[in-house]
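Protein: UPF0102 protein GCM10023095_21810
Species: Pseudaeromonas paramecii
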Amino acid sequence: MNSNSCPSKGAEYEDKAAQHLLAHGLALVCRNYHCRQGEIDLILRQDKMLVFVEVRYRQNRRHGGALASVTPQKQHKIRLTAQHYLAAQHLNESRQACRFDVVAFEGDEVLWLRNAF
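Structure follows.
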């Protein structure tokens, strides 16, 4: 089986994160939004709030774990990408309520950190 015929670990955990968030009442808007500034794994809506989600997986907590892997540099890139998304969708940044969440998988544990940064 070649690598193109099976999903990547990243896609597998993005699917799991999306399922987890959908089960908690969020609605999927977009997956893997790309622009020059970076990528956002999942964009969802919770009521009138737009939720930008970074999905991280680590097999264990060595080297800080999944949550620690969302560095200040990564957060900055996600914010820039979110600004690009809002502009591309013609949503007024100052009026659209947004938050940044992280869904982290460490082994079999799922951690959903709302308003992560």
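Remarks: Residues 1-5 have pLDDT under 50 and may be disordered.
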